[in-house]
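Human: Note token order:
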Amino acid sequence: MSKIISIKAREVLDSRGNPTVEVDLVTEQGIFRSMTPSGASAGQHEALELRDKDNTRYFGKGTLKAVANVNKKIAPKIVGLDCIHQETIDNIMLKLDGTENKDKFGANAILPVSMAVTKAGAVAKNLPLYEYIGVLFGVIPHKLPVPMCNVINGGKHAGQENSIQEHMLMPTGAKSFSEGIRYVSESYQHLAKLLKEKFGAGGVLIGDEGGYAPPQISTVNERLDLMLKAVENSGYKDLMHIALDPASSEFFYDGKYKIGNKTFSGGEMVDFYVDLCKTYPIISIEDGLAEDDWASWVELTKKIGTEVQIVGDDLFVTNTKRIEKGIKMGAANSVLIKLNQIGTVTETLNAIKMAHDQGWTAVVSHRSGETEDNFIADLVVGTSSGQIKTGAPARSDRNAKYNQLLRIEEQLGEKAEYPGIDFRMDHLA
């Protein structure tokens, strides 16, 4: 009953209205559908996202080539196999592609097939998806994640250049996931009131990830001050921390960093974050340095890595080879996990496992161009990763993940654990 009967891909739209790939995988037990997301500030070392480059359709962003790769090249080799053999099927697709970065088929062709296989495998084993992922990963899942909620968008997510990209709230003082997401949602609404009072209707424009993107604000300090005021107005002053994702590769030019009108060397950028952490309750910084500025990453980790989570996204791109290099150099203490950066569920699980084995954390993440697929909610619970980054509590493409986590928390009942402020402790070496 768990053998794959058919696989069909189609071109659909993501949260930005750009094309992406959706796959329907059929077994006797039903139809299993998955969709692949897309990033705006994509790292240059990521697996290839195959686009048609036909400017007569979707400004060249069409995905008909990736769709054809699924239907004509991948499906014939996968149909008839048993969906419970996740690693085998993933490895077949990787071998068929035969390239380092999925240059032949595109990660956006391979990934939705891999995710659909996982969903079908869960039903074949009569398990919730998060529990089945736990079986694949080798844990008994019971940990809900602390959310990183991007309530103010900057940088490419807000149509701005040379700007810190993501300003996030983490409800570290909550006692459960449901309580934590309520804290953030209420703070998000209070933030809207502050922005409306300050800037009028234009102050509550929303960026790609659901966070507000007021064009009148260009500095990280102004944004963080408003966030803390909103938290205070909500009554959660001592129950919330801040996480940043500068996405610094986007403002790195010829060996220098440019934020607004100011230019920084790598060392000066490190000092900028050190000073920022002294002023604000910042507990996590992702991509504070450019994707190949390894020496500055090492310096930042040495200076504040004990107190602050230093997360590599563009630096590692969910790739075990780059993660291994980072471990040897001491270039971070955490890895951001994005399925479409690497292309298969198996490779993603291996990246999380490498981080955990080192005592590092792993933060499961969405992309700025998202879909209604809530797979990453089950992934973060199934791997006991303890942190998820999936935008503001706004827009269904983001809330689909939060709502699934609320369902999982309900299913787990008394077994559900919310790490709160201790989200790093399980993984410290």
The first helix runs from residue 64 to 78. Residues 146-427 form a domain with the TIM Barrel fold (CATH 3.20.20.120).
